[in-house]
Structure formats: structure tokens, C-alpha cells
Design goal:
The complex is a heterodimer of chains A (290) and B (362). Chain A has 290 residues and is mostly helical. In chain A, 74% of the residues lie in helices and 0% in strands. Chain B is α+β, with helices and mostly antiparallel strands and 362 residues long. Chain B folds into two domains: 4-230, 3-Layer(aba) Sandwich (Rossmann fold); 239-361, OB fold (Dihydrolipoamide Acetyltransferase, E2P) (Beta Barrel), CATH 2.40.50.140. A six-stranded mixed sheet of chain B has the order 6-7-8-3-9-10, sandwiched between helices. Chain B has a five-stranded antiparallel sheet with strand order 13-17-14-15-16. In chain B, helix 2 runs parallel beside helix 4 and helix 3 packs across helix 4. Chain B is elongated, with a radius of gyration of 24 Å. Chain B starts with a strand and ends with a helix. The chains are: A mainly alpha (290), B alpha+beta (362). Chain A binds chain B through residues 179, 181-182, 184-191, 195, 199-200, 203-204, 288-290, and chain B through 51-53, 72-74, 78-80, 82-90, 99-100, 103-104, 133, 147, 151. Chain B: This is Carbohydrate ABC transporter ATP-binding protein (CUT1 family).
Chain lengths: 290, 362
């Protein structure tokens, strides 16, 4: 079909794999380079990092730096090692993600499938909280946490982050697409509210739950402002806060090689969650249930 | 095995809309009762009230002598087949059928036995591991039936179960439902808006209109003696011709002595109308009425032909056997046996025809 090759659309679509790949590769290089350089820097000694020019190949201090970060103490944050930080951050991210999902799926279930007085009022109350930015709520919330004695506790770190209008809204929209006949058939089959929830609503929304879990885990993992306010003692720090505390204003004071190692550790868990849950997504997308 | 008895059942919605206006109905044990009517006549609401999916505003519903008004659907010992099948999308065919039994705490071997038995009956044996979305419409319909059968209920409830199937499959499934219901002998209530489905399936035909029962009876009795003009025009396709005596007289029909005192409408089934030659042989001693119609269109459908015509401003359908040898335009003299005429009063209620003896005197 030579004359077709002459046509604009065809020749463009012939060339397009190269063009689009070039664009993609360029984009990936731009995004990946800082991360790559973080890794390179985590294998260098402090002196090598501070002395220009930038070294672009990994150095020889990989084992030393990682050993020191994992089992030694990170000077700036009061002798806390990376394990403690990872544990803290994991607890926070997991509690926030799981807590948000549990609370929002239950409230959406109530709003969609039950008829009770002021149902829509409750829905709108939840909806309106979306309109308040975090910063507006943060001082009153802090005061409440102080009064309840929840500073420097996991409860204090996670509880205020759990209520989620967005997730409630998402689940509500999904539940509204579950046909009424399904609920009725289940009722005829003897499924009460709890049975219907566990046998129908949960399995049907598992792909939604997986998607939300990824988003919320990363949201919890990268929390900055709230953990900064609500933790004082070093052993309650999350890895993000610790990173902030490790960086001093004077360049020479900062143990950049350990900062880089900690950064690598801060990146890995969210990446792992995305990679693992992505397989779930694909599975969920292929096996569309409806 | 059970009878279902409804006593002055009413349904009033929150907005004051009265969907079901006092229904009294008894469905005998083992019978297939079809509720038929146009959309919005309350037939589905009534079925859902029997199922326990809608609350009963007043009156009582008894299943097998037990008042079930306050019982949950699962406690009423009923099984329902829904219009869109309502199969559980995330469960295999086997689990779809087993789910209700598991909830009742039926022992596992018994569940297995019952599901296999139902699957054999419905020819679903090879599909038990499939998910509903991997099935065709007809297969889904069977699974929905299977789910009802395994529960061994006292009553089957069908809510327009065939309306999502294509015409050919619908006919096939209709026969299967009838056969299955006969074999199992379970009392069944079946809702449909399709009068053909209603006629062919029913032991007891219930014609409903705007929340009320118009007529209850065996399908052919309802067909032959419709109690109201509504039933007359709803049951039968094409519907019964409804004309006023004035219309008929104006085109030459002689009704003297035939018309009961209160009658304001005369009904004639399309197949009871025909050419004078054909009908005079059929009528015998009963006599004929004859009148002229203006032909609009002739529709041959193979075994028969429908002649659409007018009597003044009223339209008339004549069902002619085979290929009708009638002109395609102009006037035609048609005839109907006198004993096939139906009469209705001003309220649309059936009026008995004038007895033969009185006719002669008149």
C-alpha cells in the first residue's frame, strides 16, 4: 500500500513508536536521574559527596553506609536507627490506610444501603469536610490531641488522619452501582446486613479497596506536617520527619551519605506497595465482575 | 406445597400513591398463577409484597396458612426469580445456587446433592464452575431458576423472568418453566406484561389494572368471557374490537333484540369477524350480524391475514384465515355470529347477552 504510506496519518503512525519512545525515555531519564543520584550518593563517603564534581558511578562505601544507617545511630536524630524509623512509618501508613478504608467503607455502606433519619444530612456533613483544608483544622486538632494526652503516641499520629470524605465518597459512588436486585436476591437467600456486607459488598469492591490502599498508604507514608507537630521524642519520628531533622543548615554538619541511605529506605516501601498492588489492579481489571 | 392467600392487601407509598388497592386472591396449591397487566398496574409491587421486599400497608398475606406480613423474605419459604436474574457476579454457578442453602445451615453433602440435582434438571452440569458473566442469557436464566429450585420453597415467585431474552429463547424458556413447574408441583406466582406468556403459562390468570384485579379465571375463560372492556382489549392479540351500537347501526348492522338493556359497547374478537360466506357456515342457527367496513390495510402474516379497517371513526381488526381473498381498498361486508358478541355497560362491565328465547320474542 505505497499510496497509503504517503498519507499523513499512516506515515505518522509508522514513525510514532520511535517518537513516543524517545519522549518516554527522555521523561524517564529526567524523573529517574535524581533517584539514581540519590542511590549513587548513598554509596559514597561524606567527603566524596561534598567534593565536586558530582560522581556519576556508585562508590565503594555501599556496605559501610548501609550498615551504619541500619545498625548504628543517625547522629542528628538522637541515635535512632533506620529500622525504628521504618517501623514507625509503616505503622502510621498502614494504620492510616486500613483505618481510612474501614471507616469509609462502613459509612458508605450505611449511607447507601440503610434508610435512617437524617441519612442525607450525615452524607452532606461528611461531604462538607472535604472543603476544609488540612491547615484550617490542624490547630484545633492539635489542641484536642494535647488535651487527650496523645502527643508522641501512634494513636495521636494516625487517628486524626483517618476520617476520609474522599474515600467515603468513592465507595458511595461504587455502591450505588450495585443493582438493587442483587440486594433483594441476597435477602431472599437469607443474607442479613452483615452477611451482605461480607459476602457481597467486600468481594465486589476489592479492586476499589486495592486502589485506595495504594493511594492512602502513600498518603500516610509521606505525611509531613502532622507528624512534625505531634511527635516530640525522636523514637516516635517517621522517616520523613527524621530526614528533615538530619539535614542541618550548615552543609558540613549534615551527614549527607546517611541522608541518602535514609532517603533510599524512605522510597522503597511505597514503591514495593505500588508494584505489589499493581498486579492486583491488573487482575481486578481483567476479571471485571460486573 | 402451599396455598397463597391475599386478603384486602393494600400498598400505599410514602407520597400517598396507592399502588395496590385492596387485592383479594387465593392461589390454590400447586397452581401457576400469572399476574398480568400494563406497566404501573401494581403487579410487580404485589409480587414484591408477597416476597417480603415491600412492606404491606394493610391486609394480610398468608402462605400455607401462616400470616407472613412481618417475616423477612428468607423466613417466608419462597424463592424468587428476578427480571435481570440478579446472579451473584463474584460467585461461581455452583456457589450462586448453594449460597441460600449455606445461609440456612444446610449440611454440605446435602447442598452438593441438591445443587447437582438442580443442575442436572436444568442442563447446567458442565457450567457449575463458570462465573455468571461467562454465561449466555438463557444460561443465566437457568441459573436463576436453579437458585430457586435448590431451596425447595413453598412458593416460586417470578418477576418478568423472560423479558430480557430474545423472542426465540423466550418461547423456549416459557415451555421449560411450564414443564418444570408442573414436574415440581410448586405453587407459583408469575408476573408479566406479555399477554401471550400469561395465556400460555397460567392455571389461574389474574388481570390487573391500576392497582385492582379486573378478572381472575382460567386463561380461556378469561379470553372467552372478559369481565370488563379493559380485559377484553388487554387479553388477545390483536385486541378485541370495541364498538358502540351506534357505530354498528350506522354501517348496516341490525342489533334490534340483541342488545341488552345496559349495553353501551359491543365487543367482537377479530377472529369472530369474517366474510359473510365464511361466517354464515360457522354461525349455524345463531344468526349473524353483518355490516360494512372501509378497508385501510391488509397485513398477510402467513397462516392468517389481518385486515385493518374502519367503521366511521372507530378502527376494526378482522382476522382472516390463510391468504384472504379480499380487496386491498374500498368497502367490505363483514359478518360476526350473534352468539360471539360481547356486551359491556357504561362502567365497562360485562353484560350478559339477551337469552336466545327472549331474542325470538323481540
Amino acid at each position: 500500500m505505497p499510496e497509503r504510506t504517503e498519507a499523513g496519518t499512516t506515515s505518522r503512525s509508522r514513525r510514532s513508536p520511535w517518537v513516543s519512545h524517545a519522549v518516554l525515555i527522555a521523561g524517564i531519564l529526567i524523573v529517574v536521574f535524581p533517584i539514581y543520584y540519590t542511590f549513587v550518593a548513598s554509596t559514597l563517603s561524606l567527603q566524596q559527596i561534598l567534593r565536586p564534581p558530582l560522581q556519576l558511578l556508585p562508590g565503594s562505601h555501599f556496605l559501610d553506609n548501609y550498615y551504619e544507617a541500619l545498625f548504628g545511630g543517625l547522629g542528628r536524630v538522637g541515635g535512632i536507627n533506620v529500622w525504628t524509623l521504618l517501623l514507625n512509618t509503616s505503622i502510621v501508613a498502614l494504620s492510616v490506610a486500613v483505618g481510612k478504608i474501614v471507616i469509609s467503607i462502613l459509612s458508605a455502606y450505611a449511607i447507601v444501603f440503610f434508610r435512617f433519619p437524617f441519612r442525607m444530612t450525615f452524607f452532606w456533613v461528611i461531604f462538607i469536610t472535604l472543603m476544609l483544608p488540612v491547615e484550617v483544622r490542624i490547630l484545633p486538632t492539635y489542641k484536642v490531641m494535647v488535651d487527650l494526652g496523645l502527643i508522641d503516641t501512634y494513636t495521636g499520629l494516625t487517628l486524626p488522619l483517618m476520617a476520609s470524605a474522599t474515600a467515603t465518597l468513592l465507595f458511595r459512588q461504587f455502591f450505588m452501582t450495585i443493582p438493587g436486585e442483587l440486594l433483594e436476591a441476597a435477602r431472599v437467600d437469607g443474607a442479613g446486613p452483615w452477611r451482605f456486607f461480607f459476602d457481597f459488598v467486600l468481594p465486589l469492591s476489592k479492586t476499589n479497596i486495592a486502589a485506595l490502599f495504594v493511594i492512602l498508604f502513600i498518603y500516610g507514608w509521606t505525611q509531613y506536617l502532622w507528624p512534625l507537630l505531634v511527635t516530640n521524642s525522636n523514637d516516635m519520628n517517621t522517616i520523613i520527619i527524621a530526614l528533615r531533622k538530619m539535614i542541618s543548615y550548615a552543609d558540613a554538619d549534615t551527614q549527607w551519605h546517611l541522608v541518602m541511605v535514609t532517603t533510599i529506605f524512605a522510597i522503597l516501601p511505597p514503591v514495593a506497595v505500588v508494584v505489589l498492588m499493581q498486579r492486583w489492579f491488573v487482575k481486578g481489571l481483567v476479571e471485571t465482575e460486573k | 406445597m402451599a396455598t397463597v392467600a391475599l386478603k384486602t392487601v393494600r400498598k400505599v407509598y410514602a407520597g400517598g400513591m396507592e399502588a395496590v388497592k385492596g387485592i383479594d386472591l387465593t392461589v390454590p396449591d400447586g397452581a401457576l398463577c400469572v399476574l398480568v397487566g400494563p406497566s404501573g398496574c401494581g403487579k410487580s409491587t404485589l409480587l414484591r409484597m408477597i416476597a417480603g421486599l415491600e412492606e404491606i400497608s394493610s391486609g394480610t398475606i398468608e402462605i400455607d396458612g401462616r400470616v407472613v406480613n412481618a417475616l423477612e423474605p428468607a423466613e417466608r419459604d419462597i424463592a424468587m426469580v428476578f427480571q435481570n436474574y440478579a446472579l451473584y457476579p463474584h460467585m461461581s454457578v455452583y456457589d450462586n445456587m448453594a449460597y441460600g442453602l449455606r445461609n440456612r445451615g444446610t449440611p454440605k453433602p446435602e447442598i452438593e446433592r441438591k445443587v447437582r440435582e438442580a443442575a442436572r434438571m436444568l442442563e447446567l452440569g458442565s457450567l457449575l464452575d463458570r462465573r455468571p458473566r461467562q454465561l449466555s442469557g438463557g444460561q443465566r436464566q437457568r441459573v436463576a431458576m436453579g437458585r430457586a429450585i435448590v431451596r425447595d420453597p413453598k412458593v416460586f415467585l417470578f418477576d418478568e423472568p423472560l423479558s430480557n431474552l430474545d423472542a426465540k429463547l423466550r418461547g423456549q424458556m416459557r415451555v421449560e418453566i411450564r414443564k418444570l413447574q408442573r414436574d415440581l408441583g410448586v405453587t407459583s406466582i408469575y408476573v408479566t406484561h406479555d399477554q401471550l406468556e400469561a395465556m400460555t403459562l397460567a392455571d389461574v390468570l389474574v388481570v390487573m389494572n391500576s392497582g385492582r384485579i379486573e378478572q381472575v379465571g382460567a386463561p380461556l375463560d378469561v379470553y372467552e368471557e372478559p369481565a370488563t372492556t379493559f380485559v377484553a382489549s388487554f387479553i388477545g392479540a390483536p385486541p378485541m374490537n370495541l364498538l358502540t351500537p351506534d357505530h354498528l347501526s350506522a354501517v348496516g348492522a341490525v342489533l334490534e333484540g340483541l342488545l341488552p338493556a345496559d349495553a353501551v359497547t359491543v365487543g367482537i374478537r377479530p377472529e369472530d369477524l369474517g366474510t359473510v360466506e365464511a361466517k354464515s357456515a360457522e354461525a349455524g342457527s345463531a344468526g349473524l350480524i353483518t355490516f360494512d367496513v372501509t378497508i385501510d390495510v391488509l397485513e398477510p402474516v402467513g397462516a392468517e391475514s389481518y385486515l385493518y379497517a374502519r367503521v366511521q371513526d372507530a378502527s376494526v381488526v378482522v382476522r382472516l384465515p390463510g391468504r384472504a381473498a379480499v380487496p386491498e381498498t374500498g368497502k367490505l361486508k363483514v359478518a360476526a355470529p350473534v352468539d360471539k358478541l360481547h356486551f359491556f355497560d357504561t362502567h365497562g362491565k360485562r353484560v350478559d347477552p339477551v337469552p336466545v328465547a327472549a331474542r325470538r320474542l323481540g
